[in-house]
Amino acid sequence: MIREISAITETVLNRDDSITCLIVLAVAASFIGIVALLLLQGGQARQGPHIGDCNRESCKRAFRDLDLLINSHADPCPDFYGHVCHRWQQKTAASSRNPVTFLRYDRRELMRHINYTLSGMNSAKPASFAIYKVAKFYESYERFVRMGTASVSEALLPFRDYGRKLLNMSTFPQVFRYIVQLSLARGIQTVLDISLNKFPEAVSLRLLRGQTLSRKMNAKPTLSLKNYLTQLISEVPGMLGHRINVTAILDIEQKLRKYMAWERREQRQSITMLGHLTADMRLNEWLDVINADLPQQHKVNTESMISIDSVDLIQLLLSFFRVLGKDGVVYLFVQILLGEFRFDYLRRVSSKDTESIVSSCLRATQSVMPNTRGIIAYQLFREPSGDTAIYPIFSKVHDSVSIPSAFSWMAVFMRHKADKTLQSVSLYPFNVYSQTPFDQADLGAVYKTSSFLGFFLQMKNRQQLILLEEPSAPHEREIDDAFLMSSDVLYHDQSNSIVAPASMRQEPFLYAEGVPPEYVMGTIGVLLARALLRAVITINASAVWSPEERFALFSFYGCLDVLGRTALNVSIDRLGKWEPRDVYIWTQSVRSTFNALKAAYEPSRAAANYDSYWVLALKTFFRRFCLLSCSVKSEQQNLASRVFCFLPLLNMEELSNAFDCPYHKAEYSIEYCDLASPLDK
């Protein structure tokens, strides 16, 4: 039923105060209704699932590690780097005579841990006989390096036969055959590095340039190569009856440095090309000298293939030594000496540098015990595979990096190349081992410190014979070094794999399963993403990028540079030789890992406390990321660290939301930088 408005009602509605009162009542009623509805919904939500707090010991350690570093008194909005890194800088500078970055600090701690473990190993309770054998050799090397300078003349004795044989040679073909024999059969590299390697196609030879004396010694300013050679060679005449001219050796060294700096262009070719390297050696002579030391199953013929360095460079090196005569022979003998006497050099320049000594000890041990890395990995991780904890992180980050939209700025060719690389790239597997070819009978010999170099040479020769029977892949030693020595996640192009080093497989980088993902995504997750992006956006790819792609990269770089100058009052160009590629990769690494973190929390979105928990997770993620840039170095390096902590985060709206900061558009009137714009369809 519809009623008409009466006169009284009309009068009431026409009165201003009555209308106002009715409006107020209506608004109040609406407000009360909304509040009641929200309370009802809130009450219902609180009855649903919650993201619970982690009470595991590993979680408590992760929370504590971060809390002890964060400077809560520093406002993260204007000074995020100080908020994250200030306490760490103070702690590191106060506790170390040689402060390093956050990344290098964990490598240093790993070196100390390995040194403590191996040096403290005894035969009473060895974890395994394999680790005990590694420890004994390691201990012998360490003792040799740390002892006072021993009698050089005694240490030279194992090299006397090499010197006499070389100095009695009268023709270049004789010398060259000896170079091949030393490298292939004894593992002693001079100006050439010839080895038998296992390639995907087959086992074949590899011929590369060798190393200069300076590179072999890793010469330091504290003891120049000239001064050390003068001290060492003063003992040689008594051993060989031949005086060595140090000046002539250094002249050859200086010329060789220029040649060895040539760009490396390794290619697989027919072995018949060996006959064209020098007029002094025909192909059949090459095959004879090579096959003399190869086992029957690996002997070569004219149908074989060889992987060779720049052919022009190898020809130049052979021609160079051909005309040197006796000086060239003497230089080769010095190469043999310094291949092992680099250990003596190390003890003279690094007596107080524990990290350098431990690194050298590990490399020496690996060169005679190829399973060293796997045996130490077992000691560190105590599991059949060292990848159990890290693989789930790699998998999530890989999925995020591989999203097609991330490469929409690329043209079709490069986009296809990126997809192909990401489909096949993998985390390099670090399985652990329990065996080593080191015999029990050898354990007594390693205690003889005075004869260590001779024993090392003997073990190296024995190991080379094993490698001729069972060749290794050419990249295995490089990856083993990276696993134990590196302080960064690396991409290895030859194996198309990501190498995550041991220093990042332990706290505070990697925590046990169950710790909230933001703790690992912010550190090792970002570094995994960066390595994957480096696999896709390679340096040599710039030669095939289209003008549009290069323009997109430079535009992104320019946008970030403007953001840096506006927000931080510094240009990226002031920080060193940072290529647009590097800046983009670092920035995109954070974005890709953030997306991986977001995907990891997707199953929890229905939780009642998701919003509040997500904000806390974001804060932790951003803080952990910035730790990667923490540095205690020069003012210029600190400035670069500050920029590369804060600049990628300034380009993320999520940072200002998490910390409630007035960033970007409100304060700086600048757009976010974005490279993901399609170039062709």
Automatic annotation (TrEMBL):
<comment type="similarity">
    <text>Belongs to the peptidase M13 family.</text>
</comment>
<keyword id="KW-0812">Transmembrane</keyword>
<feature type="transmembrane region" description="Helical">
    <location>
        <begin position="21"/>
        <end position="40"/>
    </location>
</feature>
<feature type="domain" description="Peptidase M13 N-terminal">
    <location>
        <begin position="76"/>
        <end position="303"/>
    </location>
</feature>
<protein>
    <recommendedName>
        <fullName>Peptidase M13 N-terminal domain-containing protein</fullName>
    </recommendedName>
</protein>
<dbReference type="GO" id="GO:0005886">
    <property type="term" value="C:plasma membrane"/>
</dbReference>
<dbReference type="InterPro" id="IPR008753">
    <property type="entry name" value="Peptidase_M13_N"/>
</dbReference>
<keyword id="KW-0472">Membrane</keyword>
<dbReference type="GO" id="GO:0016485">
    <property type="term" value="P:protein processing"/>
</dbReference>
<dbReference type="Pfam" id="PF05649">
    <property type="entry name" value="Peptidase_M13_N"/>
</dbReference>
<dbReference type="GO" id="GO:0004222">
    <property type="term" value="F:metalloendopeptidase activity"/>
</dbReference>
<keyword id="KW-1133">Transmembrane helix</keyword>
<dbReference type="InterPro" id="IPR000718">
    <property type="entry name" value="Peptidase_M13"/>
</dbReference>
<dbReference type="InterPro" id="IPR024079">
    <property type="entry name" value="MetalloPept_cat_dom_sf"/>
</dbReference>
